[in-house]
TrEMBL record, chains A, B:
Keyword Cell membrane: no
Cofactor: FAD
Similarity-based family: Belongs to the FAD-binding oxidoreductase/transferase type 4 family.
Designated name of the protein: D-lactate dehydrogenase (cytochrome)
Organism whose genome encodes this protein: Paenisporosarcina macmurdoensis
Length: 454, 454
């Protein structure tokens, strides 16, 4: 017998906006993480903010949970509808609403992906630089406060936002900001929705700052003998004041995996990847300065990629890192995402290496060291619960250590399911305040229940 | 008869921590705005977060309002204890708690001023660049989300924050963040307290990002025939991608006032002030590029100040702008603080000029045009209520127009008393959400009551 809320949905929307087809339920049951999948009862494709208001009304009326869905590239199970209900997929709300090159800003619907957005704006000399590797939706990136390789210069998603349109649990539609570059008016809600993972409201419009495409770009790589030497060099680069665009660490094991995956022929040593970007003379000066500094610190294999083909190849290798670990048959992986003050990084990376070595598992370490943020990717046999437990233990101990060092259990992937258990250790008394805010915004706990909070 | 809460305060704290001396009550009755002063019943000088927890307890017990006080340099009456009660002055909590040059961050108590902080950190090659002209306290700057001349590069106070320690109305002490450069953990509270003007909690510790002191700096000025030409040129500079450190507009009238005030001998025309800062070659390239671009647009009087004495003199003139208007006997002034998308600025500045001309009052226009933010400073005879009304009307109409253009009624000064009446126009349905958050954090309305919300 069909459940009442499904009937009402069928009456309220076009038939192609709702589905419970097997493949769609499956697609909306998981993301790119290892967290166990749960299928929603229904998938809904809104085409407007009004549709979102209506689905939220139905959710309230029948007390059926709602879980927003971007592209499902999340790494902490954020889109998994753990309490079932309705998965709200924003892929049809993927339009640019207003592009204002003269103000270097754009207003988009949440379902547009970052590459989709860039393909529209790049021809005007502007770009949206936040790059989490995956071609994620802008809505999902806001909701997880994503960042990635360019955060060392541009910050995280939260730093890119001027205004959000949000549908609240009670059906109210609000705007959190304005189109002005800065404001001291009212209480600041924009930053609160960034990283809220669909637990406080559904985002239906996003106004983003854009940046000029740098005139000139130079990419470079170099290697060191130890992970510690790499992170110390990264620290020195930061302190030098060179305004790098990207600075990534990749350990030797990860390099060997990605070489095997894509025949990149990179030197299989602990490596740093750099990108310098800006006006030509400045960039050339920066890359020379960096080269001198790194060589003084004993780097080897310094190599520059200045043409765009070589550069693209390098960053493709960097972005394929996690797939390189995951394509192996019968094996899958878990990922850590700690972030700590940069001076603590050499210690934290060493500690990660030790933990992996102790466990007997295979695991790589790489990440956005310019932010003090790195990932572990630890492989385990899918048929072995013991190996999964070991892998999770490593990430857990790393998260705890990062918090002890004044850092965070998640630099960019978000809390979702996997990082809920560290929320009290990280936030202490503030966790109760966060819970009371969740209660204020969503008193019936219908918006992505089971995420962020245990 | 002494009121009970004063007795309890006397029992709870050292005698030099509380006062109701006439001059202290007066000092805490006003800020630098024109809003009518109100004296508190008592002034309290906390020396620790514990003291703050205790005073909050007393406030709750006796239902006596509390108003935090930084240096009283605010421009919207934020420190005026409109419901009387206790003014909590943070000047004794002015220490650096932890300076970590290796992580480019510092944790301070709220009462330290920006110059006090810089005098400690500059010798390590680092600086805290946010510069609202006045030597404000870091706590006050967080609480108003201050910015100023350098926001065009570094953003506002909110963008500088990693962690706040806050004493809530119920006496709980929370930390809103961590020492990591980025995080996607929990709900983001840090940004919410920035700009909350003491209405949600009392800030007792602040962790700030620091920046390297630029190796090389060049300041420059030029003039144009109209305000519109200035703002159009500023827009062109922004679009060119030159990463300026400061870009200020000052209209001809303001220049003539500041010349009279400080004998600066600046050309009395509509002017732009620039500062380029970074690595030497880059800065030289930037300033050349800017010069070419501005001259193409018809600028005159291009002048470079590359030695530090000349530069300091130029920025001193810029910072004295509002004092230049205020030292005239029998006259005082009100200030506007609108901010709009940069493409709307030429129109908004023209509109401001028209309104001032119509009113028959004398008023200058200057501000941080790189952010789309500018101030009006309109003089009125203190003995004429009619002139004050006219001056306020101008600022009101400007605020409304800025909001219509997608901007904000306050770019950096905050809401306080004067901008409460524009909150609904600017925030619409979100205003109710903000009020419910105020209610959540401060159910008895004891923390700086009468501010932000009508
Ligand atoms: C290979 C790979 C590399 C990655 N590298 C990085 C990296 O470097 N940095 C990084 O930050 N992340 C990285 N990620 C993680 C992922 O790309 C980000 O978390 C991304 O932000 C998720 O976007 P999405 O559109 O896929 O969102 P989804 O995974 O679909 O959803 C994420 C969360 O957002 C919510 N949500 C989605 N849309 C809305 C909306 N409109 N309103 C309210 N809530 C909404 C969902 O409910 C969910 O809680 C990587 C992922 C992969 C697979
Ligand atoms: C000449 C002049 C020029 C100015 N130019 C600029 C400018 O360019 N840009 C700009 O942004 N501002 C400017 N201002 C305004 C002013 O300097 C800023 O608003 C500044 O941030 C106020 O800091 P303060 O320490 O004086 O705070 P106060 O005025 O003392 O207080 C401001 C608010 O902060 C709250 N507060 C203070 N300390 C705490 C705490 N520890 N916890 C919680 N709440 C607290 C107070 O309750 C009040 O609501 C200018 C002022 C003057 C006089």
């Amino acid at each position: 017998m069909e459940r009442e809320f499904i009937k009402i949905c069928k009456q309220s929307f076009n038939s192609d906006q709702i589905t419970s087809s097997e493949n769609e339920l499956y697609r909306h049951s998981h993301d790119e993480s290892h967290h166990p999948s749960v299928e929603p009862d229904l998938v809904f494709f809104p085409e407007s903010a009004d549709d979102v208001v209506n689905i939220v009304g139905i959710s309230r009326q029948f007390q059926i949970p709602i879980t927003p869905f971007g592209t499902g590239s999340g790494l902490e199970g954020q889109v998994i509808p753990v309490k079932k209900g309705i998965s709200v997929n924003f892929e049809r709300m993927n339009q640019v609403i207003k592009f204002s090159p003269e103000d270097m800003l754009v207003t988009v619907q949440p379902g547009i992906t970052r590459m989709g957005l860039n393909s529209i704006i790049n021809k005007h000399g502007l770009y949206f630089p936040i790059d989490p590797g995956a071609d994620a939706s802008i809505g999902g990136m806001v909701a997880t406060n994503a960042s990635g390789t360019t955060a060392v210069r541009y910050g995280s998603m939260r730093d890119q936002l001027l205004d959000l349109e949000v549908v609240l649990a009670n059906g109210t539609v609000i705007h959190t900001g304005t189109k002005a570059k800065k404001s001291s008016s009212g209480l600041h809600l924009t930053g609160l929705f960034a990283g809220s993972e669909g637990t406080l409201g559904l985002i239906t419009e996003i106004t983003l700052k854009l940046h000029g495409i740098p005139e000139h770009t130079i990419a470079a790589t170099c290697t060191f003998d130890t992970p510690r030497a790499c992170t110390e060099a990264a620290h020195a680069i930061l302190l030098s004041g060179i305004p790098i665009l990207r600075m990534e660490f990749v350990d030797a094991l990860s390099i060997s995996f990605v070489n095997a995956y894509g025949s990149y022929g990179l030197p299989e040593k602990h490596s740093l990847f750099f990108e310098f970007a800006g006006m030509q003379k400045a960039v050339e000066e920066e890359s020379l300065l960096a080269e001198g500094l790194l060589k003084d610190m004993g780097c080897e294999n310094w190599a520059i990629a200045s043409d765009s083909g070589e550069r693209a190849r390098l960053w493709k290798a960097r972005h394929e890192m996690s797939y390189a670990f995951r394509h192996i048959k019968g094996m899958t992986s878990t990922g850590g995402d700690v972030c700590a003050p940069i001076s603590k990084l050499p210690h934290l990376v060493d500690y990660a290496r030790e933990l992996i070595a102790e466990s007997g598992l295979t695991g790589g370490i790489f990440g956005h060291v310019g932010d003090g943020n790195f990932h572990t990717i630890i492989m385990y046999d899918t048929s072995s619960t013991d190996e999964l437990a070991k892998a999770e233990q490593i990430n857990g101990r790393l998260a705890e250590r990062a918090i002890e060092l004044g850092g965070t259990c998640t630099g960019e992937h978000g809390v979702g399911i996997g990082k809920r258990k560290y929320q009290f250790a990280e936030h202490g008394a503030a966790l109760e305040v966060m819970k009371s805010m969740k209660q204020l915004f969503d008193p019936e706990n219908l918006l992505n229940p089971g995420k962020i909070f245990l």
